[in-house]
């Protein structure tokens, strides 16, 4: 079992592995955390082009990588036998050891402060097990994608991309085109996607501001607005009555590959620090991201055309605990609708 302190020998491990192998990557996370890991996963796939790679996490998010360059197969992390890995001195179930023993290499991007998970994982029967903390050390600020790429540096695995790349298949692209055909704007009309939600309401710009921006986009630019709504985005449902009645289409809880294909055809995306914002940026469209209590230098989306609106204050960035009890959130409320309007006009210079 090799942890961070033993990385001086990790490159030897990578070099000893056969060119064709079975690799299991444990990455239980939401969509944003998955996307920031993609540059590292891309390098692993390029380094082991003929490997069978299985990614274990949450399938609804992992669908974006399944059969799309990165992963040959998916599996669920939230299984009862996997939960045994978190119990001290656990007797691992046969169902787990039978599955894990077929892998030549297991890479676990799982938080494990007490090392219980990693110690159990090394008893799973896999040939090699590597664990890496998915969160960077706060004393050494580094972009989260670079944090995962640093893992590859220690393994002496080369990489060429520091921004995420998403590979859509023909079915995905057709679904996106069909959606646009059925909800197509008029010729010359700009299409702007907006996701007013986030995995945490404490990172969200006030919805009343988004509503104001939506009205302005329609009145000033006659734009077609796609509002993205996921299962946790109750703010859209609660405030639907405040939205305009024309030029609005709500994209409700679509599969991520289809949503990515839709976003790829939009002229602009606007959103908070959220997984969907990372998705939009990765698709290469012009992305305007609004940051408040989190640090964009660490958590900012990467892509071909990303603009981050951030007004640092004396108390931001802050911890999860602090932001949950912070009212009013000056870091977000100091960003005005006028600020965002100006950024939009800069992002759409042809209007």
From TrEMBL:
Keywords linked to the UniProt accession: Glycosyltransferase, Transferase
Gene: rfaC_1
Biological process annotations from GO: lipopolysaccharide core region biosynthetic process
GO MF: ADP-heptose-lipopolysaccharide heptosyltransferase activity
Gene Ontology CC entries for this record: cytosol
Signal sequence region: none
Pfam families for this protein: Glyco_transf_9 (PF01075)
Protein name from the UniProt record: Uncharacterized protein
